[in-house]
């Protein structure tokens, strides 16, 4: 990749190629979009005193806070913008958000940046040595800097200093991880030449998130402090023969402590650096190969960043579109806020209640509701689920056909025949015995009917509650009121349904059907009473008689079951779907008709108001981003 020399006046072409992309991402980040999607950026990481700040200073030409311990205590976003005019004045500005309020102040000269950043850090992270993950943005505009945006993070500290929380090391690592694990972040890993590179935590952390080094750029610092004789090792790294990174390494030399104390300017340092590498016995070759020098590094970074941005744009667009749709949907689901004017408030309430009733009725009838149209909720399944419960009832009752239980019933019949034998001749069937057995067996059908009723009642409860939540979640008072009423009504109708089912069974107790229906059933049944496998019938007289009676009993149950599997669900539906819905409707209508009390229930709870405000903010952000991104294709 060709390096860009920032000391040369940048061609118009370069301006066109680089600036718009960096501007785009800066704009998106300024807009707060990094809260919603991940944005391409360059993040600087390194162990304490590795030379991060020195590197950033050299690239940006501004003096950053210096000192021992953790100097960078908040992520610092350094947005460098190259002025178009060669004689444009230097401009600096600090911005951050504290307690949801924007704070911003200008910095008048490069030398004051350090103090300004410290001031912002103290404001955000306190004056002790704590850290904070709130971002500070430093905008710098000058003719002498590259177009680049970098994020400086606290250095990886191994031991907590006095007054620092003991887990400060972990806190910092967590913060760094948060930034570098994003796939479109370029990691600038700063490592000094004079330590064993294998022991640096920065490179290890980078490797954890970017195993093949495809987005990690290595920076080797402090070549002048190298232990003589170890240059070969450093050259091996620079030539990517050891600790390989796909993007390779660049070596730079910054001002040492002495240089700073002597007041060496950054420009002077850069000139010195150039001649240092040019004439260095070991490093002049890598300098020629454009693997050395701050300017080379700055140029490479710009190019890398722009490349990353270009790659990310299609994904960003997609991401923003998806999130935009989701946010719109969330907002829509929350409904519009409560208007303050009395008239409008009234209208709002009636609409709110009407929409709920609408959905409730549709749900009870098995039609699609507004709420489930907006979001794939399961409440449209109410009818389907109720039907399933009815089907289970049908299956359970059919299974209870006397013949399909077990052989015991035959024995029962036989015993009953023997016990109740009066003066009649054999083979004349005793009807009272038959009726008694039918009645006894009928009682068993009460249980599945109750189970079904209970199931439907629970379904109605869960669906109506979910529906109320969907409509009224923003208004807790109203939500509770309506849910309370619904519950009361449901319990009442459950009782009524129970009574209806009792009545059905009381009628079944009569043991009746029209002759023609019974005869048809007997004909259908014929001699087809199929015994369960393994059942053996004894061919004695009572046995034959019992089998015949059982055949008639089964013929009767065929009719009775057919009746019950329809009537029980009809009774349940009448009360728990139709009548309950009607009662809820009139109760809710009553609430709408006497709005004084109901309006009080309409106060939106603070959580919802806040959530709505947040969603609206987010929507704005995403819409703006969508617009910004639309310019690129
Ligand atoms: P940071 O903690 O990673 O931000 O490290 P600094 O940039 O504050 O650097 C730590 C110390 O190393 C400072 O005293 C710098 O002046 C010094 N330093 C940085 N780079 C070089 C370099 O290339 N050569 C020399 N001699 N000293 C350097
Ligand atoms: Mg530093």
UniProtKB/TrEMBL annotation:
Keywords: GTP-binding, Nucleotide-binding. Gene3D superfamilies: Dynamin, middle domain, P-loop containing nucleotide triphosphate hydrolases. CDD domains: DLP_1 (cd08771). GO terms for biological process: synaptic vesicle budding from presynaptic endocytic zone membrane. Belongs to the TRAFAC class dynamin-like GTPase superfamily. Dynamin/Fzo/YdjA family. GO terms for molecular function: GTP binding; GTPase activity; microtubule binding. GO terms for cellular component: cytoplasm; microtubule; plasma membrane; presynapse; synapse. Residues 36-314 form the Dynamin-type G domain. The gene is LOC118425833. InterPro entries: Dynamin, Dynamin_GTPase, Dynamin_GTPase_CS, Dynamin_N, Dynamin_stalk, G_DYNAMIN_dom, GED, GED_dom. Residues 546-633 form the GED domain. Pfam families: Dynamin_M (PF01031), Dynamin_N (PF00350), GED (PF02212). The keyword RNA-binding does not apply. This is Interferon-induced GTP-binding protein Mx3-like. The keyword Nucleotide-binding applies. It comes from the Eukaryota. It comes from Branchiostoma floridae. Transmembrane segments: none annotated.
